[in-house]
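quick one, 465 residues, struct below
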Amino acid sequence: MTREAKQRKHRGSHRWLIAVVTCLIALGVGSLGYASYYHQRFKPTQINGVTVTNLTVAQATKKLNQSTGSQSSKAITVAKSRVKVSQASVAKLLTKRNGEAGHMVDTVSMKLTTQVSASAQQYRLTTLLPAFEKQIDTINAIRKTPIDAKVVLKNGQLSVTQGQSGTALDKATMVADFKQQAKTEAVISVNKVTKQAVKADSKTISQVKANLQKLLTQTVTLNVSGTNITFKASDYLKNGTATADGKYQFDTTLLKQKVAALATKYDTKGKSAKFKTHSGSTITVPAGGTWGWSIAQTKLVKYILYGFEHPSSQTLNLKHFVTGTGYGKTNTVGDTYIEVNLKTLHEYAYVNGKLVFSTPVMSGTITGGNKTPQGLYYIMYKQRNTTLTGQNDNGSTYNSKVKYWMPITNSGVGLHDSSWQPSYVYGNTSYRADYHSHGCINNPPSKMGKLYSVSYAGEPVVVYY
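---
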């Protein structure tokens, strides 16, 4: 090789080296420039759904705080739910984002939570939540609602109906997500969740069917004054449904009919009753009066049904399902009562089966507008020193002052002292036509205090002729 050729080769190698060095320097400068640029700015990034690519912390913070809500195909971002975020919190995301390797081109989604004040939470839950729920309802109005499979009880036989798929949003799930985000999120953005129908061959429906089968074998025992009556679910529940969430709906017609039959048999209120009088004879006291009890049928049906559904509640006592007075009493009224014999115009008071008071009285008429009503009653309340007001036969008003007053009817019939009556009329039926009351039982003033002292509000009063 000639000297000239060697020089040309040396000059070529030198130029190549210079080109390589220049390229490396350019790359280094570019890298340093890129690193310097993204030291203060976000690489391709979205924060809470807001794009902040190439923005500084200050710019990103401003954009986040000014961004309005929007609706995407996958989520509902609630307008006006955004609370201001601090530059410090955004700076932390910048450090995290730019510290990640790679992701030079791909956009990375990041989540920013913040401290939500109590007042902001209250605003979100009381103002924004109702609007959010309405928005879901509006969307669902044009979507198909899914129908879950369910277990059907028909004529005592079980079967399963097929469900139907749908496109409606799962409102309950989305509302729960909203409430959770309302506590911590800088902006509430709820993912759209489509409600899925429960299928007929699912484990859920299989378990619901098994539970209903078990329910039909349950029994409830009702204690009626020491006598037990057994209700078996399968005898009274012939038709109904069980939904995927385990809720039952039954046709309770047969159960209601059974309870109504018990009421007819056992109720005492408004019925005539056998009663052993002071003289020892047993009479039938006419129907009517305020004393007595009746089965609260709707309440009892409800609790029997509850007993079927909850095996731990299988024994009931009828005393908890009656209204009125006197449940469980012997001789209809028990051993403590007041007895008024209109035929003999005599009154008796018994306490624990013992006669403690007796006196002749005057009553109202046997018939007509001033008659004293027969039946089983009870003392509604007791009152001292009051004035009884009413209307006389001629239309005038009477105002009678009494020291003792014990009403037994809502119309104003009761037991009281009667200072205006001559002493000889008490117990004398021949004076009833001229000295009768307006329906009350007039007691001699000298006796009434004793009767008042041995009686109590709620005590039964038997009035018969």
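The longest strand covers residues 397-407.
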